[in-house]
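Reply to dn_fold:

You asked what the input looked like. This is it:
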Amino acid sequence: MLRSICLWLFLLLFAASDPCQSEDNRTLLPVQEEVWALPLIHPTVAYVVRPIGNGPFPLAVMNHGVSLNARERGFFPLVEFRDAAVWFARRGYLVVAPSGPGYGAMALENPELGLFPVFYSKIGVCEKPNFRDAGMAAALLDKWIIDYMTEQKYAVPNSAIVIGQSAGGWGAIALSSQNLPSVKAIIVFAAGRGGRVGGKPNNNCAPDKLVEATAAFGQSARTPMLWIYIENDTFFGPDLSKRMHAAYTSAGGNAEYHLMPPFGSDGHFFIDSPDAIPQWSPLVSQFLDERR
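and this is what came back:
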């Protein structure tokens, strides 16, 4: 049924027919990679990687970060963290990584022809940033994806996990405040908004207001979360991420915090690198295994 309504752009098959073992002695599944056009309220293109077979499978939704530069959004890669997505898929998840509204082909802008991209992730000016609504907009897209994949019987009901990096992680924190029965766990890497104002490292937009917004989400959030930050993140450094976590959990949120050692030239892009998988995978495996 899904094939008749989705645009299939390509299909890549990989992994040997003989299953291999992971570092945690778990049998890894052969997977296939695809690109789907999801007929949501806002039509969305997504990278999808899943175990070979008909399913249904537990669902993992993965959210990328945000660029405020229109040109950069136009050239934003469709698959930003492919190795991480494949890691989840080989452990049995149907992974859906949407390209956010206003990215890639959807970033086409020509006002003279009446073409305007949909980009709803702006936070406004730093003097009065709206961190909450930007997060809730990303959370809404996740909800649409979870509902659609469940209705199409590709995903096991009430099995979803959500993974987000940077602004995508901020959207996942926003999602946690809704306590959706369909979401059983959330994992974020270097989550936040307003980092590197003007391109300057460790120069944040209204960090006190970001902490306040994090606390506001924590007031109603009860979904289990795993927060992973990196010491040399120049967008959301250790002091700020620890303040955010303290505010979130003090308000009632349920989040486990881990600060990883420095990685590469900027730890903010930790999840993008296949070399980082051996560092974060034991934490993620344990966190998910405890919630099966």
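The chain has a mean pLDDT of 85.
Hope that clears it up.
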